[in-house]
Design goal:
8 strands, Aminopeptidase, N-alpha-acetyltransferase RimI, eight-stranded mixed sheet, globular, alpha+beta, 4 helices, AcTrfase_RimI/Ard1
């Protein structure tokens, strides 16, 4: 998926140091993922991770991951993370990453679940524009800050196994 100044491609092992650095910058108050966590995520066969870049060969400016769980015909997906460097927010990277994740879920006809900080109005609005609804709240979800999270869900798309939507 590309536009004139936006590229979404697969996250790979060479991106891990940059992901860990962005985690420290953006999530310092809530247990940022170390490089070993990203490595484990990429090693899991049920996960897909994407990278956002300004253009091919440039440094990663965002990343996102989703897992597909359950058996064929009964899948569900969970978004693990969507993160965009502060210097690149408001430029469409988050929306493009979310679209890549939702395409994974749509390909297997799965509903999608996620957690988002209750004070992250920008992310909540993005998710709601893409069909998510709040389904619950997890008190003290983010640690060590103790911030609450909404659980949000988007129903399964009519598109399954590459069919029309």
């Amino acid at each position: 998926m590309t536009t004139s100044e936006l590229l979404i491609d697969e996250l790979d092992y060479s991106d891990i140091p940059r992901c860990a650095a962005l985690e420290k910058e953006m999530f310092a108050d809530d247990s940022p993922w170390p490089a070993t966590a990203f490595r484990a995520e990429l090693n899991a066969p049920y996960n897909r991770y994407f990278a956002a870049r300004e253009r091919p060969g440039t440094e990663l400016v965002g990343y996102a991951g989703i897992s597909t769980l359950g058996s064929a015909g009964n899948h569900e997906c969970e978004i693990h993370t969507i993160a965009v460097a502060p210097s690149h927010r408001g430029c469409g990277y988050g929306r493009a990453l979310l679209s890549a994740l939702l395409a994974v879920a749509d390909d297997c006809g799965a509903p999608v679940f996620l957690e988002v900080r209750t004070d992250n109005d920008t992310a909540i609005a993005l998710y709601e524009r893409h069909g998510f609804a709040r389904s619950g709240i997890r008190r003290n979800y983010y640690q060590p800050s103790g911030a609450d999270a909404y659980t949000m869900v988007r129903p399964a798309s009519a598109r399954e196994s590459g069919g029309a939507r």
